Amino acid sequence: MTGTTTHFGFQTVPEDEKAGKVQGVFTSVASRYDLMNDVMSAGIHRLWKDAMMDWLAPRPGQRLLDVAGGTGDISFRFLRRAGTGHATVLDLTEPMLVEGRKRAEAARLSDSLDWVVGDAMALPFADSSFDVYTISFGIRNVTRPEVALQEAFRVLRPGGRLMVLEFSKVPNPALRRLYDLYSFHVIPRMGAAIAGDRDSYQYLVESIRRFPDQETFLSMIRAAGFANAGYRNLTMGVACLHSGWKL
Ligand SMILES: C[S@@+](CC[C@H](N)C(=O)[O-])C[C@H]1O[C@@H](n2cnc3c(N)ncnc32)[C@H](O)[C@@H]1O
């Protein structure tokens, strides 16, 4: 016990308990995770992930580290766009990786993938080992996002690229009210009906509200050492892509 606290959704918890709680959430939803993403977002998460690839523009032969990679959505897209290359999917929650491995086998992508259980805050890789680092809907779950960003910087080679896809802040107040109504009244009920788990989806919507807005997160990326950093809003700021380079 460190004595320091942090947030887990709207709850305050000891910092050293957060990762276990996050793991509990994703262990509980792993088998229904992909289905829930499609239902909750009406398939829009696929467009956001495609937009991430459009900006990233994967090139043949690149080595990707996809942190909090879960069931592999980002790595699969990356490999298809790059044509040749390699992706390492790292995640805290083994049942998410187990689901991903099944999908990789079905898609005949297994030879280009590694699956690693690990923590974004202490990556088990040497300095300068990857060309690209992605984290999609993962960083808001990490106990200390600033430490994850420092780790991203460390494992990227000079010239390597960071790209983060995360929920963000809707700047328009009227749209934000509608979005809040949907988030707090509809999503937890869908979680109960489809994944049999209301609490995990309540955590999901609360954790989104606790995550820094676009500009604050941009300053965190710069503080970790990334150059030429910038962001693009998706669906009026519901989600956002942040990019930076290790130069
Ligand atoms: C919402 S899912 C995102 C999965 C996938 N990237 C996607 O976009 O569909 C969040 C993932 O982050 C993982 N995660 C949470 N905290 C983590 C940490 N500290 N290190 C690594 N993975 C973590 C969870 O286990 C979960 O699989």
Ions, cofactors and other bound molecules: S-adenosylmethionine
- The CA-CA distance between the termini, in Å, is 37 Å
Strand content: 15-25%
Q: Low-confidence parts, pLDDT < 50 over ≥5 residues?
A: none
Indicate the CATH architecture: 3-Layer(aba) Sandwich
User: What is the CATH homologous superfamily assignment?
Assistant: Vaccinia Virus protein VP39
The ordered string of helix (H) and strand (E) elements is EEHHHEHEHEEHEHHHEE
Question: How does this model look, in words?
Answer:
Helix content is 47%, strand content 24%. By secondary structure, the chain is α/β, with parallel strands linked by helices. It has one domain: Rossmann fold (3-Layer(aba) Sandwich), CATH 3.40.50.150. A 7-stranded mixed sheet has the order 5-4-3-6-7-9-8, with helices on both faces. It has a two-stranded antiparallel sheet with strand order 1-2. A hairpin with a 2-residue loop joins β1 (5-8) and β2. The protein is globular. Bound molecules: S-adenosylmethionine (SAM). S-adenosylmethionine is lined by residues 19, 22, 26, 67-70, 73-74, 91-93, 96, 119-121, 136-138, 141-142.
